[in-house]
UniProtKB/TrEMBL annotation, chain A:
<protein>
    <submittedName>
        <fullName>Branched-chain amino acid ABC transporter permease</fullName>
    </submittedName>
</protein>
<feature type="transmembrane region" description="Helical">
    <location>
        <begin position="92"/>
        <end position="112"/>
    </location>
</feature>
<keyword id="KW-0472">Membrane</keyword>
<keyword id="KW-0812">Transmembrane</keyword>
<feature type="transmembrane region" description="Helical">
    <location>
        <begin position="185"/>
        <end position="206"/>
    </location>
</feature>
<feature type="transmembrane region" description="Helical">
    <location>
        <begin position="256"/>
        <end position="273"/>
    </location>
</feature>
<keyword id="KW-0029">Amino-acid transport</keyword>
<keyword id="KW-1133">Transmembrane helix</keyword>
<keyword id="KW-0813">Transport</keyword>
<keyword id="KW-1003">Cell membrane</keyword>
<feature type="transmembrane region" description="Helical">
    <location>
        <begin position="132"/>
        <end position="154"/>
    </location>
</feature>
<feature type="transmembrane region" description="Helical">
    <location>
        <begin position="6"/>
        <end position="27"/>
    </location>
</feature>
<comment type="similarity">
    <text>Belongs to the binding-protein-dependent transport system permease family. LivHM subfamily.</text>
</comment>
<feature type="transmembrane region" description="Helical">
    <location>
        <begin position="58"/>
        <end position="80"/>
    </location>
</feature>
<dbReference type="InterPro" id="IPR001851">
    <property type="entry name" value="ABC_transp_permease"/>
</dbReference>
<dbReference type="InterPro" id="IPR052157">
    <property type="entry name" value="BCAA_transport_permease"/>
</dbReference>
<dbReference type="Pfam" id="PF02653">
    <property type="entry name" value="BPD_transp_2"/>
</dbReference>
Length: 283, 398
């Protein structure tokens, strides 16, 4: 049972990570909390619905979802966000409006009910003395892979160098010849694509209805407050909060557990205003 | 007057006209065209959102049939207005306030969560507005204006436990329930009923109504190792998320889900295979009334028709019962309508229904099992079941 509890915590942390990474990248790069993140999660999930209802094999939509979401983001960024550059409050409102519009469009087309979607059926495996859902276990390697990829790109590639320059100081970056517009466009598309991927990964365990992204947007938002743009810091935060939520839910009460993330975030920020990041460096 | 001045005056008067129109309700929302307005509060958003579309369809079908048959009170049309109660107390307050205090509806027919009912009913009671509650619930809700054709635990739980004892020899039980009045009260009822039958409840857990995360609940069930698990959930989304996560977890324990319905089961599909659930209605019912009903649903909604279930059929029946009561009373006066409600009966897809047992109704109960393709097969017929002593102080003579 204890192994099961630990695995619950780790896999919950992995899922937090996958859902939050896209929001974090947009936050770090563009200093913008993208409230449309929940809608992009939903778009990813509904892409799976459409794809599997047309007979595509179940693993293909997982690759398709980030592409579709990325395309939507690519269309939306120049139309909605680019015009509001330099107006952070307005941009925030715009992403919130975008969230509402996308979700209402989904509701108009699909209805409010839950959508049937074919999902992978991996069953459970015996591991560490307990039987555990294989699908949930996969959240851990997927989260690690995503985190490593982002960290590698940020630290080891020219693209990442450009990104880190923009994060550190946009004006200096612009003066040294970096095209901020392109960087922000690419960031928004990439962050949204990650949201789409997360949405697709949620379909086997969540109800695919227009509100599928709502609880995750909330959790991702809270966790993002704690972390700069470091995937490593995000990883640590997600594992800790995942374990905390699971322990509270299993050993105390699930209703109390829903408070775990927000209360923990508030407490941590109270005593460590920088959150999990040492200084404001990208590490 | 200068050009600009005239334009301003025009705009101002147009604006004033629009404002006056809005205030005086120039829209056709109020029943100003001799129709009889009935409120349909339902969870368009929130936990019930998954089952709400079917509930609305069933209500509309009933109203259509009544109107096609010549309406009530000498040719007046029945008109429905749908209100979103957001599956909970806050939304119900808004919905009932609008329905009762602003729109002055003649009656209310609602498939709602207990939380919504508890919040809305006092508002309906203020004006003695007839409220027909159509959802299965935890029992013992009693009021002068409240009539219930939804099931009570005496009907859904007692025959079920007897069946499981007989056919599955279960000794230990685990309960997982939605954390609100219905979940808590029904879980308590269940625990007592299991104890009375000689079994033992080894684990009882509650999960927030709007929570889609059953990770810890499933972990605790796994360690409790019960012979059978009973879930007592709010209708709709909780069953979807629990079924999916149950499937992924690989648990192989028999699972009875009081919150499951035929429409949601079909949508979930294979992930719900093997789940058992009791219901007073299944689409396989062989009666002519049911066949007519299903055909009418198909004719009206075509491919968009939702599979009828124990949430939508009582709603359909409830609208018919209320309309008949208004007609029998000869007026929309609340006291007159309430006096007639115990007297009217309706022969519908779930059999004959009359709300004459202390404001509750006898219902025929069955047990269904979800198949691999999401359809439900009826595996047991419990016969006509009495709702039990719900409101002894509200004796309404049949």
């Amino acid at each position: 049972m204890n192994a099961g509890l630990v695995l619950d915590g780790l896999t919950t942390g992995g899922l937090f990570f996958i859902v939050t990474l896209g929001l974090l990248i947009v936050f770090g790069m563009m200093k913008l909390i993208n409230f449309a993140h929940g809608a992009f999660l939903a778009l990813g999930a509904y892409t799976c619905v459409l794809a599997t209802s047309h007979g595509l094999p179940v693993w293909l939509p997982i690759l398709l979802a980030p592409v579709v979401t990325g395309v939507v983001a690519a269309v939306v960024e120049p139309i909605v966000l680019r015009r509001l550059y330099g107006r952070p409050m307005d941009t925030l409102l715009a992403t919130w409006g975008l969230n509402m519009i996308i979700i209402q469009l989904i509701t108009l087309y699909f209805g409010r009910g839950t959508q049937p979607v074919k999902t992978v059926d991996l069953g459970a495996v015996d591991v560490f003395g307990t039987t555990y859902s294989l699908y949930r276990l996969l959240f851990i390697p997927v989260a690690v892979a995503l985190g490593l990829s982002v960290a590698l790109v940020l630290n080891k590639t020219r693209l990442g160098l450009v990104g880190r320059a923009v994060i550190m100081d946009e004006n200096l970056a612009q003066i040294s010849g970096i095209n901020n517009t392109v960087v922000r466009f690419a960031t928004f598309v990439f962050g949204s694509a990650l949201a789409g991927l997360a949405g697709a990964l949620l379909t086997p365990i969540a109800s695919v209805d227009p509100n599928i992204g709502v609880p995750w947007l909330f959790a991702a938002f809270m966790i993002s407050l704690l972390v700069g743009i470091s995937p490593a810091a995000l990883g640590v935060a997600c594992v800790l909060l995942g374990m905390l939520q699971v322990l509270l839910a299993s050993l105390w009460d699930p209703t109390i557990a829903t408070l775990a993330v927000p209360v923990a975030v508030v407490l941590i920020l109270r005593f460590f205003p920088q959150g999990f990041v040492k200084g404001a460096r990208v590490s | 007057m200068s050009g600009r001045g005239r334009a301003t005056t025009l705009v101002a008067s147009a604006f004033a006209a629009v404002m006056a129109c809005t205030v005086a309700s120039c829209s056709s929302d109020a029943a100003d065209d001799n129709s009889v307005l009935i409120a349909i509060p339902v969870g368009l958003t929130g936990a019930n959102s998954v089952v709400a579309p079917g509930v609305v369809q069933a209500s509309e079908l009933a109203a259509d049939q009544i109107n096609a048959d010549g309406g009530i009170l000498g040719g007046r049309q029945v008109k429905l207005k749908i209100y979103d109660d957001q599956s909970g107390a806050n939304g119900a307050l808004k919905a009932f306030t609008a329905a009762v205090r602003e729109d002055n509806v003649v009656g209310i027919v609602g498939m709602e969560t207990t939380a919504a009912r508890n919040a809305g009913q006092p508002i309906a009671a203020e004006t003695n507005t007839p409220y027909v509650y159509t959802s299965g619930y935890e029992g013992k809700a009693c009021a002068q204006n409240l009539f219930i054709n939804g099931s009570t635990p005496e009907q859904s739980v007692n025959p079920l436990i007897a069946y499981i004892d007989e056919n599955m020899g279960a000794k230990t039980w685990a309960i997982v329930a939605s954390d609100y009045a219905y979940g808590r009260d029904t879980a308590a009822f269940f625990e007592q009923a299991v104890k009375d039958s000689g079994g033992e409840v080894v684990s009882t857990q509650f999960n927030p109504v709007d929570s889609g995360d059953w990770t810890s609940a499933l972990q605790n069930i796994r360690s409790a190792e019960p012979d059978v698990v009973v879930s007592i959930l709010a209708a709709g989304t909780p069953s979807v998320t629990l079924s999916k996560q149950w499937k992924q977890s690989g648990l192989a324990i028999p699972h009875v889900n009081l919150g499951m319905d035929e429409d949601t089961a079909k949508t979930i599909g294979a992930d719900a295979a093997g789940v058992l659930y009791p219901s007073m209605y299944f689409t396989g019912n062989d009666s002519p009334e049911n066949k007519e009903f299903m055909q009418a649903l198909q004719d009206k909604f075509g491919d968009d028709a939702h599979i009828p279930n124990q949430m939508t059929v009582p709603q359909y029946v409830g609208v018919h019962l209320l309309a008949e009561a208004i007609d029998a009373a000869g007026s929309t006066d609340p006291a007159a309508v309430l006096a007639e409600l115990p007297n009217v009966a309706f022969e519908g897809p779930s059999g004959p229904v009359q709300i004459n047992k202390q404001h509750h109704a006898e219902l025929n109960y069955y047990l269904g099992e979800v198949k691999q393709d999401g359809t439900t097969e009826v595996v047991a017929d419990f016969g006509l079941v009495d709702p039990g002593e719900q409101c002894p102080e509200l004796q309404s003579a049949p």
